[in-house]
Amino acid sequence: SDVYKRQLAEILGGGGWAFISRGTRIVFCTEPLRHRVCPGSVELSVSGEPPLLNLSVLRKGCSSKPPPNTVFCPRHFNTDYGNYIRYIFSGRVQVNRSNPFFRLPAFLYTVYYGSELIKIGTVISFKGSRRLLEQPGLLYSFILAAPSIAEARKAEVALSSLPGVSQAPSAKERFSYLTRASHRSIEEHLRAFACRLATVLRRARSTGILKEELKRWFTQDKPLTVMNIDWGMDTPNIRILIRSSDINKILSGDSCVVEGYAHGALLLNCASAGSVAVPYELLRDRVLCLELLKS
């Protein structure tokens, strides 16, 4: 849509919001990050009843270092947001219906990389398609709307047991698939993705891997929308940097201008490194040592 052509997404920086669009300047730090930082908290207030809900979202950053093998610092570990995120990644947190994150509808989405593999994932409703911006992919489709993230998560786990479906392929795998897929036309990929989606959903229904209460939430006899999110694709001879340690080292002290976004990566024109692509999810995860400047 036009929104994606004008700006990529918002990120929390310095206590406020910053927007990334074509022409945004990114300066990479000369000093490496000292440690991982806690993502802080998101305070979510929900009123009303489905399908009409009123939401209030307040994001609070944090610069504390989490303990080993955890994402959150002790202060934010057991917040509503902390429990929601830990449930998403581990599934071992007990679902608390008083937690507003577990009361919102959620979506199940699929990501196609131009290969036989399809990724399946969940996203809470207020985040919507912004989740798709944060990961590498060629084509995307929402395939299920569930009454809560817990129900969507059940479907995600069930569908990921099917052949050719994964919950979390590595960034290296995903960009490798995307690079190899570049020689085919978008029409060919659309047909291939449609066939893969049809196969996955047909197997899910025929094998009975989903519980009866989940089956009724799947779209019946209605078309699925497939999305292709990119702008500024025409950048030849671009170098793809995947690992955060490599990006922080290679681009240390470099000044880069955003030229576009394509399939989960920021396309940068850097003063020293030239044309490079870096995964946008690394910026969202706050593991890149950089500063955003106004366009």
Task: Give a written overview of the molecule.
The protein has 10 helices and 16 strands. The chain has helices at residues 2-6, 74-77, 80-90, 130-133, 149-159, 171-180, 186-207, 212-215, 244-250, 280-284, and strands at residues 10-13, 16-19, 25-28, 41-49, 52-60, 106-112, 118-124, 139-146, 165-166, 226-227, 230-231, 239-240, 255-262, 265-270, 274-279, 290-293. Residues 1-16 have low confidence and may be disordered. It is of the alpha+beta class. A hairpin with a 2-residue loop joins strand 1 and strand 2 (16-19). The radius of gyration is 20 Å and the shape is globular. Strands 3, 11, 12, 13, 14, 15 and 16 form a 7-stranded mixed β-sheet that branches. A 5-stranded mixed β-sheet has the order 9-7-6-8-10.
Task: Write the topology of this structure.
Blueprint: H1 2-6, E1 10-13, E2 16-19, E3 25-28, E4 41-49, E5 52-60, H2 74-77, H3 80-90, E6 106-112, E7 118-124, H4 130-133, E8 139-146, H5 149-159, E9 165-166, H6 171-180, H7 186-207, H8 212-215, E10 226-227, E11 230-231, E12 239-240, H9 244-250, E13 255-262, E14 265-270, E15 274-279, H10 280-284, E16 290-293
Parallel strand pairs: 7-9, 12-15
Antiparallel strand pairs: 1-2, 3-13, 3-16, 4-5, 6-7, 6-8, 8-10, 11-13, 13-14, 14-15
Which properties best describe this structure?
single chain; 295 residues; alpha+beta; seven-stranded mixed β-sheet; five-stranded mixed β-sheet; 16 strands; 28% helix; 28% strand
Shape: globular
Radius of gyration: 20 Å
Strand and helix order: HEEEEEHHEEHEHEHHHEEEHEEEHE
| C-alpha end-to-end distance | 21 Å
Query: What is the assembly state of the chains in this entry?
Result: single chain
Mean pLDDT across the residues is 79
User: Which class best fits the helix and strand makeup?
Assistant: alpha+beta
Number of helices: 10
Largest sheet: 7 strands, mixed
Number of strands: 16
Low-confidence stretches: 1-16
> What proportion of the residues is helical, as a percent range?
25-40%
Q: How much strand content do the residues show? A: 25-35%
